[in-house]
Amino acid sequence: MLRTFIFLLLTGACFAQQAPAPAAALDLVKQGQKLNSDGKQDEALALYRQALDVSPNLYEAHLASGIALDLKGNFAEARRHFTKAVELASADAKQQALRAMAVSFAFEGNAGEAANFERQVFDARLAAPDFTGAAEIANEVARIYLESGDTASAYKWYRSGYETAQRKPNLTNADKNLWLFRWEHAQARIAAREGKADDAKQHVAAAKAALDKANNPDQARFFPYLTGYVAFYAGDYKTAIADLQKADQHDPLILALLGEAYEKNGDQTQAMDYYRKVLASNAHNPTNAFARPLAKKKLAG
Predict the structure, then answer these.
(1) Which of 148, 164, 206, 279 is the most buried (most CB within 10 A)?
(2) What gap in Å lies between CA 224 and CA 202, rounded to an integer?
(3) Strand runs (DSSP E) across 147-282, as ranges?
(4) N-to-C CA span, the chain
(5) Reduced to 3 states, what is the DSSP secondary structure of residue 135?
(6) What is the pLDDT of residues 235-254, one digit of tens each?
(7) By the 8 A CB rule, do 73 and 299 touch?
(8) How far is Cα 168 from Cα 232, in angstroms, rounded to an integer?
(9) Is residue 62 within 8 Å of residue 81, measured between CB atoms?
(10) Is the peptide bond before 286 cis (omega within 30 degrees of 0)?
(11) Angle formed by the axes of helices 286-300 and 268-279, to 10°?
(12) What single DSSP character describes residue 285?
């Protein structure tokens, strides 16, 4: 009897030493996230699997797994992990999980399904009430629709974003002009996508006027993105290249547009260089959801 007790005590102690605690599982996730940001998705996923072996219901491991799988292009498997993450998420983390699921659908250009998850976040922020946060989500949905080619739905959501932002009490004049800049910016891009060059130019001018009144230097970098975007869809690729090169060079969608502009301008070498730059981004957001699959396809071709 005593020997049995000692045996169980010893084997239990040994098991306790071998089995990582939940904190160790979280550490595995953090290590995996570093690998993922370095573009090493397979190595990251191996660590996430180890974490899930220890803690099968670890929210962070399911969320991180979905992100890495999306970047690899394994969208269906990614969404199985995001579904689990949504189920496991705390109240504070629920919106993060829903937005990650939306981005996963954006990677496949499925704006309708993406919007189903974004709408839940939008509604939650409205109920808070967090009008600025809700407006930002509306614009996020709108951008997914726009880059999916659904300009009508994009317009609807961008307008919703602008109108929702106006509901914030005591909105300053600077903030009013900032949101007007975003609204005109959006309308210009929509018009450009629809081939309405004159309308696009009018909205570009209105966006510039609002930006000047907002007096917000941090937003200035979004203006050359706008003019480059409009020029690209107007078929003026030289202007598009010149303007987009002044925009945020860390934004994968801008890099992808530069790649396409160079390609249409007959410079295949520069185009391929920009597509490779796109793949250096391992962000899980709407811009990379459209840029990364495009770059992979171009480089594979």
Answers:
(1) 164
(2) 15
(3) none
(4) 71
(5) helix
(6) 999 999 999 999 999 999 99
(7) no
(8) 35
(9) yes
(10) no
(11) 130
(12) S
Give the domain ranges of the chain: 237-301
Residue 301, pLDDT score: 79
Question: Do the beta carbons of residue 154 and residue 190 sit within 8 Å?
Answer: yes
Measure the CA–CA gap between 64 and 229, rounded to whole angstroms: 32
Confidence of residue 11 (pLDDT cuts 50, 70, 90): very low
Q: Check: pTM over 0.85? Answer yes or no.
A: yes
Residue 214's CB is within 10 A of a number of other CB atoms, namely: 22
CA atoms 68, 73, 75, 76: torsion sign: negative
- DSSP characters over 191-210: HHHTT-HHHHHHHHHHHHHH
Whether 179 contacts 162, CB under 8 Å = yes
Q: Which of 14-48 are b and which e, b meaning 16 or more Cβ less than 10 Å from the residue's Cβ?
A: eeeeeebeeeebbebbebbbebbeeebbebbbebb
The pLDDT assigned to 22 comes to: 85
Averaged pLDDT of the chain: 93
- The structure tokens listed for 187 are 């309308």
